[in-house]
TrEMBL record:
Organism annotation: Ploceus nigricollis
GO annotation, cellular component aspect: endoplasmic reticulum; membrane
GO MF annotations in UniProt: dolichyl-phosphate-mannose-protein mannosyltransferase activity
Alphabetical UniProt keywords: Endoplasmic reticulum, Membrane, Repeat, TPR repeat, Transferase, Transmembrane, Transmembrane helix
Record field: transmembrane: 33-54, 131-151, 188-208, 220-237, 243-266, 286-305, 372-391, 403-424, 430-449, 458-476
EC assignment: 2.4.1.109
Protein name per the record: dolichyl-phosphate-mannose--protein mannosyltransferase
TPR repeats: 499-532, 533-566, 601-634, 703-736
Membrane topology recorded in Swiss-Prot or TrEMBL: Multi-pass membrane protein
Enzyme class: transferase
Domain of life: Eukaryota
The DUF1736 domain, residue ranges: 311-383
């Protein structure tokens, strides 16, 4: 009879494996928790993980979603699929010095599939996939935790036995409802972490399958070891952390399959003991399997390095200030403080923020800083756990603590600043995988407390309370991720010293047209970070629109002084200088912007406006033509070319340009209007009328459209229709220039005709 692998208390245990399971104490024996069949346990985990994040399904694209999805050309059908393998996560070439070097082609491929099936940038489909992925991962966690907490055993028919059903359910629930996961699930860009975690877990489960036919680890399947390496490579192609599963598979092999006592092994290595084979290294093929894992990992990293092309990405001091500190002591102290903050987010995920950079966490520069206590607490706990993991006489305790620490620390290593500089201070998304280790340690701690507690039900109720609080926190945090306004404002109370938070709140307000409030937040961002060039640029833009030109010039000049290659600031400075009628300086600023950004259609457009103001018509037309070559849908540049050619009497050329523009942008009513004016002057009344009517249909409230159509009818001799459209134009805009005079002329003409008719 097949063992019911999901019920630790089933009487139908197969004798051989029952004895093997009892060689170590059963973690579930002391855990006061629910015992459910595996199917129901997974259903409960899936349902609760869904409830936590379901309200994010109809959220907007927020924060990094704009760059990674909306502005990423790799999502569009016209970009060859092959380009995904040579571009970074944000759509830039990996070989570029400005590339972020985040190589995640499989994640971008899923975004592209989302875009294709949705027929555009509709965020619902993107969010739904993220929620499904988190639910799937949480369900897989039931199996993963059953192995990590209960050990790996199979029945004689090859079915894996769940020796810790209660503990694995608790750990999976803790993972499913952890609020620190909200960024990965509710933020679409978090898909990289979710896909990475999915293949990370599949790699681990695949590695476990290698021992399905094994008797005490003596035999194993090379095929499944290689499959786990391939799945690890796929995880890394979703996000860089995925490669760490190969190291964790090796740790699992040593501790669970080979039951190695690390302290004994270290002693034997130190004393060059010849009995290492008896420790299980060679007898059970551990060295061979680790060699396969190492060779696979080295090959993956080599290919990754070759594709990356150049050195690591160039981050700025505001991204990660500790990594730019001159003192090794300051760097070390602050890195450790960052680790303690990550640990605190796992323990108490109440204060969550979309961004922790730009002064959010001031540097520790002195040992007298009270925050040193956090470092001491972190290392006190870690050293205590490590000592127990190495020195405890209880092999079961050693195994669980070592696996818990391994899953906590190893996936975090790529974000630790130990091997290379990272572009953030603290990032909630990178704790998604390390939280597996936290859940193992929490569950083991709960089992120890349950063992000592007299009233176990009270302890179980307390844990249920923690789960319930986390569910509510997830729901609240998910709702904050639904829109940029809620997300950015939620960060003000958590990181009031973060200039980027104030900048993003200001940008959101400016996008909604609330310039006065936006100015306040931009000024605060610049106050908090006097070198924040993007805040200076945006503030300068608003001041320019409000005609506060001198302050705008000061801010933009300071921005380009701080960052000389800031093309957008150079262009905006040119616009301000043009408004101040300092044309030579404006021209120089425009050309400097183009020097730093070769393909800059908006700058060519503004340069053309400058030349038009200076009556340098040929230069203006050339600048606008460059803008349309770089951006064929640049409606303003096309319009200005048509209008300039029209005004200078080049009607045939204006008509040709207008027709070319409408072929590229057939639904642009402003282009229809401009071309209709040209055709009217060329006495092509029928075609001109058709374009005017089409433009009016697209934009019926444009007074100038009705006014110019009336002029056309006036010239054409269709006076009744001319009168009708003059009246509509004046109703829409009583002050429309020239319309009232033309209307009065028409009325006099109609009166004269009536008198003649009379």
């Amino acid at each position: 009879q097949i063992f019911n692998q999901h019920n630790a208390e089933s009487p139908n245990l197969e004798p051989a494996f029952y004895r093997m399971a009892q060689m170590e104490p059963n973690l579930d024996h002391d855990v006061s928790w629910f015992l459910l069949p595996s199917y129901w346990a997974k259903m409960v985990v899936a349902l609760i993980s869904f409830l936590c994040f379901a309200n994010s399904y109809d959220g907007d694209f927020v924060f990094d979603d704009s760059e990674a999805i909306i502005n990423n050309k790799d999502l569009r059908a016209e970009t060859p699929l092959g380009d995904l393998w040579y571009h970074d996560f944000w759509g830039s070439k990996l070989s570029s010095n400005t590339s972020h070097k985040s190589y995640r082609p499989l994640t971008v491929l899923t975004f592209r599939i989302n875009y294709l099936f949705a027929g555009g940038f509709y965020p619902v489909g993107f969010h739904v996939i993220n929620i499904i992925l988190h639910c799937t991962i949480s369900v897989l966690m039931v199996d993963v935790f059953s192995i990590l907490l209960g050990g790996l055993q199979f029945s004689s028919k090859g079915r894996r036995l769940n020796l810790a059903p209660k503990s694995s359910l608790l750990a999976a629930l803790l993972f499913a409802v952890h609020p620190v996961h909200t960024e990965c699930v509710a933020g679409i860009v978090g898909r990289a972490d979710l896909l990475c975690a999915l293949f990370f877990l599949l790699s681990f489960l695949g590695y476990c399958k290698a021992f399905k036919e094994s008797k005490e680890g003596h035999t194993f399947s090379v095929f499944w070891v290689l499959v786990s390496v391939v799945l690890g490579a796929i995880a890394m192609l979703c996000k860089e952390q995925g490669i760490t599963i190969l190291g964790l598979n090796a740790v699992f092999d040593a501790l669970v399959i080979n039951k190695i006592n690390l302290l004994v092994l270290i002693r034997k290595l130190l004393y060059k003991d010849k009995s290492l084979e008896n420790a299980g290294l060679l007898r059970k093929g551990l060295l061979f399997r680790i060699t396969l894992l190492m060779c696979g990992g080295a090959g993956i990293l080599y290919i990754r390095w070759r594709i990356m092309g150049t050195g690591p990405p160039a981050f700025t001091e505001v991204d990660n200030p500790a990594s730019f500190a001159d003192s090794l002591f300051v760097r070390a102290i602050n890195y450790n403080y960052y680790y303690s903050l990550n640990a605190w987010l796992l323990l108490c995920p109440w204060w969550l923020c979309f961004d922790w950079s730009m002064g959010c966490i001031p540097l520790i520069k002195s040992i007298s800083d009270w925050r040193i206590i956090a470092l001491a607490a972190l290392w006190f706990c870690l050293i205590g756990l490590i000592c127990q993991a190495l020195c405890s006489e209880d092999s079961h305790k050693r195994r669980i603590l070592t696996l818990g620490l391994g899953f906590l620390i190893i996936p975090f290593l790529p974000a630790s600043n130990l091997f290379f500089r990272v572009g953030f201070v603290v990032a909630e998304r990178v704790i998604y995988l390390p939280s597996i280790g936290y859940c193992i340690l929490f569950t083991y701690g709960f089992s120890l407390l349950s063992k000592q507690a007299k009233k176990k039900k009270i302890l179980a109720v307390a844990v249920l309370g923690i789960l319930l609080i986390n569910v509510m926190r997830c729901a609240l945090r998910s709702s904050q991720w639904r829109s940029e306004e809620q997300l950015f404002r939620s960060a003000l109370s958590v990181c009031p010293l973060n200039a980027k938070v104030h900048y993003n709140v200001g940008k959101n307000l400016a996008d909604k047209g609330n310039q006065s409030a936006a100015i306040k937040y931009y000024r605060e961002a610049v106050r908090l970070n006097p070198k924040y060039v993007h805040a200076m640029n945006n503030l300068g833009n608003i001041l320019k629109e409000r005609n506060e030109l001198h302050e705008a010039e000061e801010l933009l000049s300071l921005a380009v002084q701080i960052q000389p290659d800031f093309a957008a600031a150079w262009m905006n400075l040119g616009i301000v200088q043009n408004s101040l009628r300092r044309f030579e300086e404006a021209e120089q600023s425009y050309w400097t912007a183009i020097k730093h950004r070769k393909k800059y259609p908006d700058c060519y457009y503004n340069l053309g406006r400058l030349y038009a103001d200076l009556n340098r018509h040929i230069d203006a037309l050339n600048a606008w033509r460059n803008a349309t070559v770089l951006k064929p849908e640049h409606s303003l540049a096309w319009n200005n070319m048509i209008i300039l050619l029209d005004n200078t009497g080049n009607l045939a050329q204006a008509e040709a340009v207008g027709r070319e523009a409408l072929e590229l942008i057939p639904n642009d009513h402003s282009l229809m209007f401009s071309l209709a004016n040209v055709l009217g002057k060329s006495q092509k009344y029928k075609e001109s009328e058709a374009l005017f009517l089409k433009a009016i249909k697209a934009n019926p409230n444009a007074a100038s459209y009705h006014g110019n159509l009336a002029v056309l009818y006036h010239r054409w001799g269709n006076l009744d229709l001319a009168k009708k459209h003059y009246e509509v134009s004046l109703k829409l805009d009583p002050m429309a220039p020239g319309t009232k005079e033309n209307y009065n002329l028409l009325r006099r003409k109609l009166e004269q005709l009536q008198k003649k008719g009379g």
